[in-house]
Amino acid sequence: MNETNALPILYSLRNCPYAMRARIAIFKAQQTVLLRDLVLSNKPNEMLTASPKGTVPVVVLEKGMVIDESLAVMLWALNETDPDDLLHSQIDGVLSNMLSFIDDFDHGFKVCLEQYKCAKRYREDNLIEHRVACQQYIEKLEQRLTKHTFLMSNKESLVDIALLPFIRQFARVERQWYLQTPYPKVREWLNNYLQSQMFSKVMAKYPLWLDNHEDVLFSIQS
Asked: Is 217 strand, coil or helix?
């Protein structure tokens, strides 16, 4: 039996923030998966059979088990192996706090961010209003990063890698404005990630799977 046949399959989209944070967690967990890169306008039938909702990321495990929520993929990978202890497993109750914090951003900040991006794209009059709504969340991060190096403590955690792709999007909406904002700690935190070898590997561009049906090994060694 080919060893690659037993590897999890990851359906991903390079610039989707949800898929991005799933890849980051898999990379951090030092897991190896078969990466199938796609575009949402051309979704593989194999992916839709596994997860009819048709969004990424989707992980297909042995015996047909499917994980199709980004945070669930992150938790799966890090529960398998967590060499940097991103789940802070030795601290009681901290995972619950991290999940609550991430949920707040996923359901609060993400809505504000989408409105902000649309206002910029379509040159709407309420751009500043939506930017201010986003800033309420960014200010919380700045306050945390003033106290310690990462969002939960001086140690990197699940929260950092879960929020990273969305803060990256925020920083790109009005680049010049962002560079002049009073959020130096957020900028430093984000830049450290964007300039890291980890991020370069996670964001590497691969051939689309449907072009040749050739799986790509995605791992810390790739």
From this structure: strand
DSSP bridge pairs for 9: 34, 60
- Please state the pTM of the whole predicted model: 0.95
What domains can you pick out in the chain, each with its CATH number? 3-86+201-218 (3.40.30.10), 94-198 (1.20.1050.10)
CA–CA dist 157, 154 (Å, integer):
9
Greatest extent of the chain over all pairs of C-alpha atoms, in Å: 60
139-144: which pairs have CB atoms within 8 A and are 24 or more residues apart? 139/183, 141/167, 141/183, 141/185, 141/186, 141/189, 142/182, 142/183, 142/184, 142/185, 142/186
Helices (H), ranges, 51-109: 70-80, 94-104
Handedness of CA 97, 22, 18, 47 (dihedral sign): negative
Q: What is the pLDDT of residues 157-171, one digit of tens each?
A: 999 999 999 999 999
Distance CA 126, CA 142 (A): 24
pLDDT tens digits, one per residue of 122-151? 999 999 999 999 999 999 999 999 999 999
